[in-house]
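Good morning,

Both structures are done.
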Amino acid sequence: MQFMVTGYDGKDKDALDRRMAAREAHLSMAGEMHEKGKWLYAAAILNDEGKMAGSVIICEFESMDALKTKWLEKEPYVLGKVWEKIEITRAQVAPFCMKK
């Protein structure tokens, strides 16, 4: 199953600092998830000033429960309280976008 996970950063004055503090661990996990074929695509959401304010990840897991237990429960942006709000939606990547 494919999912679109959108994580919205907090809007308080320390939000960007929390993101930057957790970023290295987040990117390390992102690389591992991509290598395992779990993360298909990822991007930062930018605010009007061009600063990171959230994330969008297109991923593939066996189920919603697997997504939560194999990734989100260990995600540095969750553990570091970077993402204030998380939306998870079933999705399907277009066939021409998938790697061969």
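Second structure follows.
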Amino acid sequence: MTDAELLRGTELFAELDDSAIGRVIAASSSRALRRGDVLFTESAVPEHLYVVEEGRIAIASKSDDGRESVFALMERGELFGEMGLLDGLGRSAEARALGPSQITEIPYGPVRAVFEERPELLWGVVALLAGRLRSMDSALADSVFLDVTGRTAKRLLELAAHQDEFVLPITQEELAGMVGASRERVNKAIASFVRLGWIDQSDRRYRILDREQITRRAR
């Protein structure tokens, strides 16, 4: 996939013509990350947005007592870090590589210039923000209507995508952060799925045995 194809796959840049996308690419750079590398911390002054080329990036926030909540996992082709482009305020969360990753780093300046010259392209920004709001609404509904077991089932299905066999791409601690519960409670939920015969687990390798039942539990 070329750089242009990667960027055009995002809602923010989908409608840019060849000239505009070329200007953005010319100002961009590719950056390699190791597991645990932090792209930015909460409250940091924002200067760039990012698109994932390979790997996974966790968007997370930590409480004063050290507990972590993982809001989202950004994977290949997904864009993040755009909030500062719009409001100029500090980062609202931390971005951290969950494994070896490659990202495209794009400074705000050229992006602002493109949208100032062609304000009709701002509909892409609207679409991006609408998607973020929908995701937040869904996460809020999960926290209200699903218990820890239900949220664990839902996160496992999301991580599995359409595969019945998969390797958990994150640690149990990071999964607990996504669920919004302690590691012990999440492990207890997974153990119940194994006991019921819905999944099979060996370390970080999972096999879904009864997708219908685990899907019902995630609702």
